[in-house]
Amino acid sequence: MGNHGIKIMEPGEAVTETSPGKYRYNSSYPLLKIKGIYTGHTYAATNAERLIAQIDHSLGYAPMFDVMVGFSATETTPTTWYPMSFYVLYPGLGAISYLKIYTDTQYLYIYSYKNDGNQYVYYKAVIYYDPINP
Amino acid sequence: MDYGAKIAKDGKAVTSTDPADYEFWSKYKSLSLYSKVTTSISLPAGYTSATSTITHNLGYYPYVWAFANDCGNRYCRLPYGIYLCSDCDTKTTVPYFRLTYKITTTTIVLMINAYCWNGSSGAAFGTTYTFDPVDVFIFSQKIK
User: Residue A133 and which of A73, A106, A116, B49 are 20 to 30 A apart at CA?
Assistant: First the structure.
């Protein structure tokens, strides 16, 4: 089979273009498939590592994920959100506060540690069907 | 002009104007996976930094995600920083190191650097530290 599939070009781009960046959609390049979007929040005490969330995806493999977090001194949805990875220092949380996130074949884990006052930690997690490493 | 392709989510009307009601709508860009590269990176004993380069040759800056399997046998999203100690979770031990990456129009460069936890200059480790695998996902979409 030769050149087959569905292609939608970016506005103004010729259908004869071959650069992947010229396509709005190309069925040769799969879209990420979302398994679920999970939100929640937990009160995080000072000077203690806290498990903010343990999300059961039960996929049997480590899936791709994307997490944003926000912080609030009171139990109100924050207005500022941060991309989250692992042990990244965040502005406004103190010099050695950290957040970490990781997944295994069963759960997505979100932890926080902080040392500059109690806060609520809010999260929005997107878990994809697409595996990191099956 | 109203043209293009769109697929509404189950139970949502195709007349909806809310992008969140669609599985796909060609009016809006979507993240699509161009390729995946599985590699590894090591910080050799006695060194404070190391790099590992992946070539993509797309000619533009692609959107990239990367995940690393750390010593806890779990998958973490980059950028990644950790205090090096026996269980990889205790933050009282220095040194500290970071694993991140930069993107060019032809390559993705994984970078591992040693730092002290308080931000001062990093010290070389006595043993080699390796992330294996590191899974790098290159999307078709341009950063710029």
Answer: B49
- How many A-B residue pairs are in contact by the CB < 8 A criterion? 106
Could you give the angle at the alpha carbon of B65 between the alpha carbons of A12 and A21, nearest 5°? 15
> Quick one: closest CA in A to B143, which residue?
A21
pLDDT tens digits for range A49-85: 889 999 999 999 999 999 998 888 889 998 888 888 8
Q: Do B76 and A102 touch (CB under 8 A)?
A: yes
A132 touches chain B (CB under 8 A): yes
Q: Report domain extents, chain A.
A: 1-31, 34-131
**What's the rounded Cα separation, in Å, for the pair A61 and A118?**
35
pTM: 0.86
Chain B interface includes A95 (CB < 8 A):
yes
A127: which 2 tokens?
């878990």
Phi, psi of A52 (to 5 degrees): -75, -40
Overall average pLDDT of the B54-66 stretch: 96
**Residue among B60, B75, B81 minimizing CB distance to A132:** B75
Q: Collect all residues of chain B within an 8 Å Cβ-Cβ radius of residue A90.
A: none
Q: Which of A90, A83, A82, A86 is nearest to A114 (CA)?
A: A90
What residues in A contact B74, CB-CB < 8 Å? Answer: 62, 102-104, 109
Closest CA to A111 of B42, B26, B88: B88
Interchain contact, B38 vs A133, CB within 8 Å: yes
Written out in words, the top-level CATH class of the domain with range B31-142 is mainly beta
**Topology given in CATH for the domain delimited by A34-131:** Immunoglobulin-like (2.60.40)
Predicted-complex ipTM score: 0.86
